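Could you please consider the sequence and fold appended to this message?
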Amino acid sequence: MSLKNVRLEVMQFLEKDVDSLIEKYLMPIEKIWQPTDFLPNSESDGFLEEVKEIRELSKELPYDFWVVLVGDMITEEALPTYESWLMDVEGIDQVGRNSWGKWVRHWTAEENRHGDVLNKYLYLSGRVNMKEIEKTTQYLIADGFDIGTDRDPYKNFLYTSFQELATYISHNRVAKLAKQKSNKQLAKMCKIISGDEMRHHNAYCEFVERIFKVDPSQMMMAFQQMMKLKITMPAHFLRESGGKISDAFEEFSNTAQRIGVYTSQDYVDILQKLLQRWEIEKITNLTDEAEKARDYLMKLPSRLTRLSERIKIPQNAYQFKWVEPVV
């Protein structure tokens, strides 16, 4: 049987549990938070005063902070790309509306709120150039992206396990920075977004755990292949208007590292957490090839740590079109 057919068979076997996993990891729409819970009420007589408060508090936050917040928001706003990508994964049927398709739609619906609330907040803050941000968002969706997962569910669930934890870290640290500047509402907003990301991370981790139980060797091989390829962030093809694909991503990444929101060491720490979470060292019944893949994975954190220690981050801020220059 081909690898593709084996993966399809495993996805069909696991599908019976997806509805219960939706109940376990996703929130009912009537109970979950909505963007308006964190934004000024436009129906209220005090709306303009609330907006004024946002604009005043925004002045206390530095340039690099706004670059990171914009980059996080644009990443979240490119959601149509992510839904169409996951809907194309082997075993996920959007036409027949099977349980895997239901998961993707419900997960997308939760994620959609993140870009929505951050976009509105940025618009009200008066600190950013919304038209340039909107252009970058449109470019990111129009350009598409290739993260090296193809239609393989094993690779895709590995990617989302890693990526959801990375976005948790980023949003959580932005929340801490906002709180340090007494911007409690923004801090609360980013903190609750990070909570969503952690739930999603735990869900995708459980998908991978279940695959390891029924197809351990191929799951191990997929893990090795993804880490050899390197986990690429969804915003890797970020660009500003007039720029080339990926031009802006390196500067955005430098900014995030400079203020400690997401660093190369975080990448290593996430890998280490996944190795522990899935108990990679204890998995049995592996083929010789899969055993070699495990050895590679177990040695990888220390190698990546040595590499991360050599990275030099530019201390001079790049001038993005998204954020008004520091005066």
